Amino acid sequence: MLKIIDKLEEFISASCLAVMAVIIAVQVFQRYVLQSSLDWSEELARYLFIWSVYVGCSYATKKDRHLEVTILRSSFGPTVAKFVTIIAYICTIAFCICTTVWGFQMVDFLAGTGQKTPALEIQMYWVFLSVPVGMCLMAIRTALRIVSIIRGEVDFSSPACK
């Protein structure tokens, strides 16, 4: 199941960024060379970017590439550093769960209103669905990081490592 999630995250993020780049390039060409513009291009690029960011958050968690302030953790020995990291990850999971729940509530609300995007006229909840999907995946990835720490798969002997 995790391999499917891995591939899906990679595909969604890469596809969104690639399509976004093409759309923006076409829009620039249309605007400055042909002196006309596509009404929907900027909106679609924005929504693709939103999806790539939230799905990319989960992927960055898997690869351990999120920005961190490690001064507290690196000032302690390996045992305390391990504990501090687990506590930080638990806080991250709590944040992700809250954001997932509230995100699904917002999606449900928007689905009920029938609100559509201005240019594309797609249901607005499709855009907002990126938040709970991305945060749910990030919570799963963070929980897996905790498991790998508990199993001893992460080296805390060096201050720079975790």
Plain-language structure description:
The chain is mainly alpha-helical. The protein has one domain (2-150). 73% of the residues lie in helices and 0% in strands. It has 6 helices and no strands. Helix 1 (2-32) runs antiparallel to helix 2, helix 2 runs parallel beside helix 6 and helix 4 (78-113) packs antiparallel against helix 6. It is elongated. The relative contact order is 0.14. The model has no long low-confidence stretch (mean pLDDT 91).
List the helices and strands and how they pair.
Layout (H helix, E strand, L loop, with lengths): L1 H31 L8 H22 L8 H4 L3 H36 L11 H4 L1 H21 L12
Helix pairs in contact: 1-2, 2-6, 4-6
Summarize this, please?
73% of the residues lie in helices and 0% in strands. By secondary structure, the chain is an all-alpha fold. It has one domain.
Overall SS class: mainly alpha
How far is it from the N-terminal to the C-terminal residue, by CA? 26 Å
**Helix proportion range:** over 70%
Identify low-pLDDT runs: none
Sheet with the most strands, sense and barrel status: none
Number of helices: 6
Number of strands: 0
Indicate the overall shape.
elongated
Query: What is the number of domains?
Result: 1
Which sequence of SSEs, written as H and E, runs from N to C? Answer: HHHHHH
Mean pLDDT: 91
Strand content: under 5%
Radius of gyration: 20 Å
